[in-house]
Design a protein that fits this description.
Elements (H helix, E strand, L loop, with lengths): L1 H12 L4 H28 L5 H13 L3 H26 L6 H15 L17
Helix pairs in contact: 2-3, 2-4, 3-4, 3-5, 4-5
Length: 130
């Protein structure tokens, strides 16, 4: 629903022409797929210390699709971090547990979205497959 609302907002308020609108939607869908692929790779790799690399890589790949991909990466990243903070309240109370890690994740997310090399976060020994 947020995706649809965002797209309607872009088309009506920003006066986006229909060709750009379809391009934006396609980029957003491809960007969401890039984020899913990075998440799947992270789960498959199961490599300690690689979390930030996969955050940066997913955001980087999505942002390379164009404005729609960058938008999708930001929405997905923010939703993930916000939901994690919410669930941490139930697990750990208001202890601040995970807050530092969440900030570090967001730094890696922005690093990738801004076009910087995700390999800056790549841990030594992570298989070349990733």
């Amino acid at each position: 629903m947020k995706l649809f609302t965002g797209l309607v907002f872009c088309s009506l308020v920003l006066g986006v022409n229909s060709q750009y609108w379809f391009s934006f939607v396609g980029e957003a869908a491809q960007g969401a797929w890039d984020m899913w692929r990075a998440y799947s790779d992270m789960r498959e790799a199961d490599y300690i210390g690689a979390d930030k690399y996969f955050h940066a890589r997913g955001n980087y790949d999505a942002a390379q699709r164009g404005p729609g991909g960058a938008w999708a990466a930001e929405v997905i990243s923010d939703a993930r971090e916000n939901s994690q903070r919410f669930t941490d309240l139930f697990k750990h109370g208001d202890s601040g547990h995970g807050e530092e890690d969440s900030r570090a994740d967001q730094i890696a997310n922005e690093h990738g979205r801004s076009g910087k090399d995700p390999n800056d976060f790549r841990p030594a020994g992570l298989p070349d497959k990733y």
